[in-house]
Amino acid sequence: MAFSVKATLIAFQGDPDHYPCHAMLNIGDEIIFDGAELKGKMCTDVMPLIAQGCTTLHAAGPRYVPPGYYNLFWYCCDNGIDPSKARYDGNGFSPYNMKYDEPKHHLSDLMPVGAFQWPPSKGRTVAKEFTILCPDVRTAAVFKMEAFDLATAGYGLPYTRREITIMDRVNKAGGTWPIDKISELYDDFEINEIYPTLVPEMIIPMIEELEVLDFVTVSDGKVTITQKGVDRVARYKTEIPAEHAEALKL
Questions:
Q1: What does the alpha-carbon distance between residue 109 and residue 120 come to, in Å, rounded to a whole number?
Q2: What is the pLDDT of residue 15?
Q3: What is the mean pLDDT of residues 68-75?
Q4: What is the Cα–Cα distance from 250 to 198, expressed in whole angstroms?
C-alpha cells in the first residue's frame, strides 16, 4: 500500500569542477520520504522531480520499472542514415558496429549507463534504475530513487502495522505459514475491528509488498519470514510507543 522512499545523489555526469553544485550537495547525500515528510537537504531545482518520484515509488515500491527500460534501442550501436537499407528496416539506417569516441562531457554522457555501447551491454540493465537528472546539465547531478522500506508515517501507516504483525505472527508460529490461513493467527477483534480489516483481498497484496522488500519469501502457497523480516519487526518495536507494541502483541 505504501513504501518509504529514498533519493540518493550518486553521480555528477556533468563537470562539477567548472560548474559546482550551488546547493552544496555531495555524492552520498540522501533525501527520505517516510510517507508524510521529506527529510534531507535538497535543491529546489530537483525538488519537484524528487517529489514526483516519491509519489510513484510510495505506491508501487520496488516493483516499479521506468518505462524507458523497455526501449530496445539502448542496445543498438551508433548508426547513420542509409536510404539503400530502407528495403530492409523500413526507414533506412546502417549500423556502424562501433562506438563513437566522444570528447569528455559530451551530451552523450547524459545517457543512462550502458546505453548504445559496442559491443552491447551484457544483460538488460540499461535504464532499469529509477534515476532523476538535475535540470542544470552543466553539473548534471544524478539521483537514484528507490523504495527501501515500509512507510512509517502518513496514510500508509495502518497497512504497515498490519504487515508488521503478519511477519511477527508468522515468525512466532514457526517462521512459515499458509497464506490462506493467515487469519487464524488473529482473533475476531483483530480481524474485523482494526483498520484495515484482514480480508483475503487485503492479506494477499500485503504479503506481496513484504516479498518485494525481501522481508518474506513465498512458495507453494506459504509465506516464510526472512532474517531481514525478523530484524525489521524487532526494530519496529523500538520505533513505536510501548503501549502500541503491546496492543499489537509484538
A1: 16
A2: 93
A3: 94
A4: 17
pLDDT surpassing 90 at residue 155: yes
- Cβ atoms within 10 Å of 249's Cβ, excluding its own: 12
One-letter amino acid identity for 60?
Answer: A
Question: Across-strand partners of 39?
Answer: 32
In terms of domains, do 134 and 198 share one?
A: no
Domain count, the chain: 3
Do 122 and 134 fall into the same domain? no
Among the listed residues 158, 166, 146, the one whose alpha carbon sits nearest the alpha carbon of residue 60: 146
pLDDT value for 105: 85
pLDDT at 107 over 90: no
Q: Model pTM?
A: 0.90
**Three cell numbers, residue 152:** 512509517
Confidence at 62, pLDDT banded by 50, 70, 90: very high
Query: How does strand 130-133 pair with strand 141-150?
Result: antiparallel
In angstroms, the CA 108 to CA 115 distance is: 9
The CA–CA distances, whole Å, from 183 to 50, 165, 173 equal 38, 11, 13
Residue 71 counted as domain residue: no
User: Same structural domain for residues 122 and 207?
Assistant: no
189 and 241 co-located in one domain = yes
Alpha-carbon span 194 to 158, nearest angstrom: 9
Residue among 60, 62, 44, 248 at smallest CA distance from 166: 248
Which segment of 17-21, 97-101, 192-196 scores lowest on mean pLDDT?
97-101
Instruction: Please give the distance of CA 113 from its chain centroid, rounded to a whole number.
Output: 18
How far apart CA 91 and CA 95 sit, in angstroms, is 13
CA pair distance 149, 137, nearest whole angstrom: 31
Q: How far apart are the first and last CA of the chain?
A: 21
Identify which of 203, 247, 244 has the alpha carbon closest to the alpha carbon of residue 223: 203
